[in-house]
Amino acid sequence: MSLADLPPFLFAVALLIAVHEWGHYRVARACGVKVLRFSIGFGRVLWRRVGRDGTEFTLSALPLGGYVRMLDERDGPVPEQQREQAFGQRPLRQRAAIVAAGPAANWLLAILLFAVVAWVGVELPRPVLGTPASGSLAERAGLQAGDWVRAVSPDGQQWQDIESLPALTAAVARAQALGEGLQLSVTDAQGHGAHSVKLDVERLAGRAPDAQLLAEIGLNPLQEPLISRVTPGGAGAQAGLVAGDRVLSIDGRTVLDAGQLRDAIRNAHDGDQPRRMAWRVERAGQVVELDVAPRLLQEAGGSVARLEVYVGAPPERVLVRRGFADGLWSGIEQSWDMAATTVRLLGRILIGEASVKNLSGPLAIADYAGQSARAGVTPFIDFLARISMSLAVLNLLPLPMLDGGHLMYHLFEGLSGRPVPEWWQRQLQRAGALILMLMMALALSNDLVSRFAGWH
């Protein structure tokens, strides 16, 4: 995490915590419970204001959390005239509603933010694929350069439309994390020749989400076979290549995308001798034929041919935007899908069928915050939606330190007719605190390992 990532990270944390605690506060007041303090952050109070209802609103020095303190007999004596305003005196359904209101507020915020992204629209790469990596799942599935993925399905029955490459990547990552296969509905780049292929990502179930995993899946965006830059004095410059050349064919074989072009250059040698190639390129509307000879370099894996040129152009992008009703429904669908996937993934982690490296900590979240903020307002709103949804799901986990644990207490009381004994509450609180600390330590460890993995 760099210092530039800190402001968007702190803004995101403060906003999402404020919304969470506001949910508790509003429902508590609606149920007639007196709220003593609404705090964003912990520690030394930096700012304080008392509201008309007597609630003390504070902003504290450590903004990585917050709380709503209500009048409650468990925290000390309650004046007789205020007993009706105490949390513990309210009916069970009201106490449960107050507890659930925090996660519910984060969930509703996530729906709204996802909908805003859909309404505003964002330009994203089209889900048109380039040449699959050699030996990858995509190559074994028969995917080819120019294939346009139109929809995905885990079972071939219910299909989800795919509008962008990030949406396809997310669907593949979800299937891999959950140990499911994934079927792709594919056409050519013009929308013809519809057919389906099966991507066997379930073979990679349990693997950590890293660069090696992505390489083994092998889904690459289609990039035009364009020479974007030529190193002066290099082998490409000596062959007559110039920036802007679009490669049409090599040795009579049509070149479809930048990945295929890179492979052709890399393999243009016979043993320790470079192999000359006959290139046809399009330059300023004219076809030019060139005799191209690479320069052979020795690398760890053996001899590799190089032209000392930069290949590829940004993939084609499409504006993804929805109307009001469709955008709102999209927000609901995205939030529900994210919640369901998160719960299923956590379950698979618990039984050892998914890697614990799927857990991200504060350093990774801060990195994402900074990257999305630099990418623009819309990507940052999407980031806020995802973190808000994650916060909602996390707080609904049945751990005593979280809202979900308190809801389990209320469920026990509703079923048995009596509250959880105080002794049990204390023991469960200790166990819940230990579990949370272990989860936080594991997530932070994942962040540190990911950050320093490439250091030697």
From TrEMBL:
It is a multi-pass membrane protein. One of its GO terms (biological process) is proteolysis. It is found in: Membrane. The chain crosses the membrane at residues 6-25, 97-122. PROSITE patterns: PDZ (PS50106). Keywords: Hydrolase, Membrane, Metal-binding, Metalloprotease, Protease, Transmembrane, Transmembrane helix, Zinc. Residues 198-266 form the PDZ domain. It comes from the Bacteria. Gene3D superfamilies: 2.30.42.10. GO terms for cellular component: membrane. It holds the Pfam family PDZ_6. GO terms for molecular function: metal ion binding; metalloendopeptidase activity. Its cofactor is Zn(2+). InterPro entries: PDZ, PDZ_6, PDZ_sf, Pept_M50_Zn, Peptidase_M50. It is an enzyme of class 3 (hydrolase). Its EC number is 3.4.24.-. Belongs to the peptidase M50B family. PANTHER family: MEMBRANE METALLOPROTEASE ARASP2, CHLOROPLASTIC-RELATED, REGULATOR OF SIGMA-E PROTEASE RSEP. This is Zinc metalloprotease. It comes from Pelomonas aquatica. The gene is rseP.
